[in-house]
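Comment thread on ticket #2218

A.B. wrote:
> Attaching the input chain for the structure job we discussed in standup.
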Amino acid sequence: MSESDARAMNLEVSTGACPSHLAPFLRLNDSHPDLYRKLVIDPFVVKYGVYGFFPRAYDLIYLSDKSPNITFSGRTRGRVAILTSRSNNMVIKPLQNSNEAKVATLAGELGVGPKQFDSLQGFLSEEYISGTFITDNHSNSDIRPCIEDIGIKLGAAFGKLHENKICYNDSTVSDPDKRSHLILDQASDIKLIDFGISLSLEEYPNFSLEETFNYVRTMPIYRIFETMNPTQGDIHSFLKSYQGKFKEISPDTIYDRDLQFLTEGLQLMSDILTEADKTAFMQGFHSTYKR
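C.D. wrote:
> Ran it. Output below, let me know if you need it in another format.
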């Protein structure tokens, strides 16, 4: 969709001329008016909007005896749709970078992340992991008796990722806002979700500007740089300069970022874990983490 088309669509929605659930289909009113009129009166379009036309979601909605529930959430990546039914659950969310689908697919195949489904351009469609984030537990829950086992499983998961040249490159157990990417599922297994800023080292030391940005965006040097209100040109120059430094940074140093995020995250969980718990977690982690 062009920028002018997007502006026209937003204007139609903001003035009430077009319901928001029909906005993605608005151009069909000119090119295929008969099809557009069918969409207008389709009750599933009213309920699910564009999400009903994603592969797999279409089958759940249009070809099932009982249509799924749909809810929406989202933290930093935008609107995330969650479809749940008795037989199948799935998540549809916008891509955060051009390499995310490839990395997420590999992570799913390795059993580290959610399984990926066929999707539409610009989006991921993946299995919904039913469980709780590790930060959702509290001091009197059952997380502490199995904390070493969680460490063992996360160590094995990181080992698989690094062996396959993937750096998760994000907080795992907790960030400063108590958000986690580590889910404990109903089978007492773990899954990492959200590979939006993960890095593939297949082409190391050659990284795109997008990958360079994902690498530096959580570093203190870049946070200081951001406080200077840089222009887009300043940001481009900064990333180009850093891009040339990767040949001086070993793959092990890049993978070590995952361990740094992990240890920092554990320190942020002092309201849940004792020092003995953290030690047990890391002992379990190092017993299985190999690269």
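A.B. wrote:
> Thanks. Noting for the ticket: Residues 63 and 181 are 33 Å apart (CA to CA).
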